[in-house]
Amino acid sequence: MTKSLMVVCGTGIATSTIATGKVKEYLASVGKTDQVKFLQSKIADEVSAIENGDYDIIVSTTMVPSAIKDKVINGVPLLTGVGTQKVFEVIEAKL
Amino acid sequence: MADNQEALGQIADQMTRSGAVKDSYKSAVLKREVDFPTGLATVNIGIAMPHTDAKHVNYDQLGVLRLREPVSFLQMGDGEKIQVKFVFMLALKEAHAQLAMLQKLIALIQDEEKIKQLLLAENTDEIIEMLNNVGIE
Description:
Chain A is α/β, with parallel strands linked by helices. Chain A has helices at residues 15-29, 43-51, 77-80, 84-93, and strands at 3-9, 36-42, 57-60, 72-74. A 4-stranded parallel beta sheet of chain A has the order 2-1-3-4.
């Protein structure tokens, strides 16, 4: 079944674009791109949807309200290159 | 420079003068940095990648600032305090556009050798040339 993967950042304009690109590249390399439906947005628009459990996997490159913290994967390593592999593994485990 | 708001203000002013961003950009990008910090600590260096909504932008531009003395920023995601040496301010006219440029920028900040060269560059022309050489224009 296809899983929805929401990538959020502060503006929904720059870093979520980079993070989405990184995740797509990785999933393509393991042949799993078609298992995921990619979505992108800004955190302010998504808090309630995340709370409601509208998405299967959520990656954020920005700070998220503590109420939804447990549901969100920190995507900053995708930008810094420090700990990138770990993020990929956590995402892949949710597929 | 006293703090990151001063550093950001300086590049934003420059980008306003160049016409790439509207007068509203500066206050928007300064506020955005407070609400959603953009510092990133790579293995090599601390950088920041401030940006704000497309409505404040006239056309795409990358503003680059190398700081003589590092300035404190908060890191994206976890809010930890980091020391920043380079600021790459993004003016993006469209959401989700410029993926290629952003990816090159991210690759650049993760490249120890290139970062060293950027830190050693003696003038703005050299920095622009190095950025152009990795496909950032």
